[in-house]
Fold this sequence. Notes:
The protein has 5 helices and 9 strands. β8 and β9 form a beta hairpin. It has helices spanning 42-53, 55-60, 73-83, 96-100, 142-150, and strands spanning 12-15, 20-22, 30-35, 63-69, 89-91, 104-109, 112-117, 120-124, 130-134. By secondary structure, the chain is an alpha+beta fold. The mean pLDDT is 94. The protein has one domain (12-150): Glutaredoxin (3-Layer(aba) Sandwich), CATH 3.40.30. The strands form 2 sheets. A 7-stranded mixed β-sheet has the order 2-1-5-4-3-8-9. Strands 6-7 form a two-stranded antiparallel ribbon.
Amino acid sequence: MSWEGKAAPDFTLEDQEGKKQTLSDYRGQKVLLYFYPRDNTPGCTTEAQQFRDRLDELRSHGVQVLGVSRDTVSSHEKFARKESLNFPILADPEEVVVNQYDVLKPKNMYGKQVMSVSRESFLIDEEGVIVRHYGKVKPAEHVQEILDDLA
Length: 151
């Protein structure tokens, strides 16, 4: 499915501080909505650190970063504190938003097929329209890829 040009599905989820975050509240600014499998895993930590370390560059392009995984608010709070994250990470343990954005995919793990959140991102414009879908994200390179697209 091609996401580009479609309205971003709206949602409300709690962040690592238990505050409700609603996507449509960010109208008027760009949003980079990124989905990741799990807190405190190597790739997810690398990706979060990249967003943390380069957040000022993204903000200079008017971009708000929002991370989403199926982890709980409590897990996110620990992860955000440990990694000094400076942007909201949203808890979706009920899998509502991961299903809205179709990022819950089958994956083989130790010979068993499990459903896992795929590492994907959506760049949403000021009007709430998806302008870029990043389907196969490399954690260490993703922020630069976004900045290149914004330039």
